[in-house]
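Troubleshooting entry. Yesterday's outputs looked truncated, so today I'm pasting the complete records for two proteins to confirm everything comes through intact. If either block looks cut off, that's the bug. Protein one:
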Amino acid sequence: MTKLEAARAFERRAAARIPAADRPGFHLTPPVGWMNDPNGFCFYHGAYHLFFQYYPYDTVWGPMHWGHATSADLLHWTYLPCALAPDTDADAAGCFSGSAAPLPDGRLLLMYTGVQPAGADGRQAQMQCIAVGDGLDFEKDPQNPVIPAGLLPEGFGTADFRDPKVWRENGAYYCVAACRHAQDQGSILLFESPDARRWQFVTVLDSSRDRLGKMWECPDFFALGDTRVLLISPQEVCADENGELHPGDATAALLGRYDPVTHAFDRRKVQAVDDGLDFYAPQTALAPDGRRILIGWMQCWATTGQAPRPHPWYGRMSLPRELFLRDGRLCQRPVREIETLWQAETRLAGITVEARTALPGIRGRSLDLNVTVDADASPACRRFALRFAEGGGLFAEIRCDLALGELVFDRSRCGSRRDIPHIRRIRAVPHSGKLTLRLILDKDCAELFVNDGERVLSVLVDAPETAQGISFAAFGGPVRLDVVQHVLRA
């Protein structure tokens, strides 16, 4: 067998032994083994295709393959056979992250980072490769790598040159790729090609200049109205003074203006994409109806090493989200398709809560829960708290300090025994006197959308699925709430 044939045979046998109940209801997991970055997210031949970094043989990172799944609704996924394996000279040490674009002839182009084994200096070489196929089987280009070391401008090297995002525009192909500069650190390079095979360097779109992390990964570059968005996943970030980015590995959106003639990008704003404890390497796709859909790896490198491995798979994707701009900020909502999963509804209007209490009908671990905190109608309340995944002394908690305009997501009491980050603080100010929280739960996956997607936090919770309780409390004085819950059908 070839490496690809062996991977396909192994995943087919191993995945068949994993019951559906062993997985989240609507968050994509790998068929078996390890998953990290989303790759090749696109709409092709009537379905959404999502590829991903994949090592089928173990639940830890290994020589990278590309896994593959498709969906009609972004919620229910069908596994397709492994798409790429590290089996050529250009990618012998791994097929790292990349993207996909439909071609005019109806085929699908995959563009990925081929990693070559370390040389005498002990460093791997990373260069960009392509493969073309019918959406199921792909043939690697014999000229790979199509963007080799010789196309890099001065100051850049191939040790950290990866993650191409490709698209077609005005009859030409473009791709952005991450690279590290000797002085400017993390940078995003723009390349152009007439046919996706013959590439030339165009410009450096933006760089950290050692002020926004050491290395940038997983770029995406797209327009939302008149604004151009450059998504990056910077590593070794220092927290900024306004608290927009947390230290370590982060996800950021650089918002600005782009001149398609000169290819100059003018960055005007930096903001977090997701403030949670488990989110990295997002990628977007353009839906047929014009929506820009984002999905990310719902894990974090800092926490994966000692994470428990209760399943024969490890890693999952976030809930796909619709991107939009509001008041100059990139915002996110769960894809509207989630409403097709709505079942039993519980609606409680004008509830007053002070001492900790459970509300009738509000409980579960697969639900879409909307809570509106009426701060104007609760002048004495200084702090509001929502606990979920509650039971057996365990819980995760969302605390909102209405006076300070701060929200704290705390999973330190949810059963974790690891010395990892458990608490995240963000700015959360009521709008027109109201603070809105939308919490999506899918077993151990929790995603919180604050103020209609102004801020988002993705967090995994260790409390067992039997911990179904949800409770509310206010401090300083009573709080007035509107609560709407929909149970979600898997």
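Protein two, checking that the full record survives here as well:
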Amino acid sequence: MRLGAETVAALRAGAVETLRTGSTGPLLLLCEHAGNIVPAPWNGLGLPSPFLDTHYAYDPGVDGLTRALSERLGAPAVLARYSRIFADYNRFDGDWDHMRPDLGGVPVPGNMDIAQAERRLRREIAVEPLDDAIAPLVRGRKAVVSVHSFTPVMAGHRRPVDIGLLWREDGPFVRAALGELKARGAVSGLRIGDNEPYDWRAVTAYSLQVHALDHGLPCFYLEVNNALFSRPETSALVTNLVGEVLRAALADL
């Protein structure tokens, strides 16, 4: 695919949204799977449109949660607007699911046998603008948290977790957040996962490796069961709980 310079520039501008970039607060929030947009020239990657409303395309609920946390904590935030099916920002370029060819067995026509030139174009449009937005915001921070949600059932397995904290390098910030999360979760009746439903130590993940660990910053991925966002009362519960957990953990830094 060949696109003109003006089109590429416009698509790059639509890849990312930033909040409170002038904040000097200690925390940076990332939301790599906030949006489900496939840039128009790619015609939905050949998928039926309902697929773009599923967890395969984005993380339901995290856009609103990230905005609320940014406001409550006065934290800068960076949100990706393009679907992870188009280019998953939290994957390295060589990972099979950076531009995944199937969705649980359903082929993605537009992601089959992608030429290197197109891979470079997609990264120019969907990855580089996020890198450029995040890099200056890392300076001066004390911690980075990436906000995600997960589907409650995967491959027929019902996950026994409501909120999980995924970490790769242990430390005071991670321990404080996990301790606060377990204590407050017990009171609220929420099931808390320590490196669940995924274990970050067993997989690779791009965003926090590059923008936190490589800078010596404590960090973790926050994972929320997306079923909790289906009702206003449970969504508010999650927002309040996570906001207080992060506030308490940051106070210990």
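Both blocks look complete. Sanity check on protein two: The chain has one domain: 5-251.
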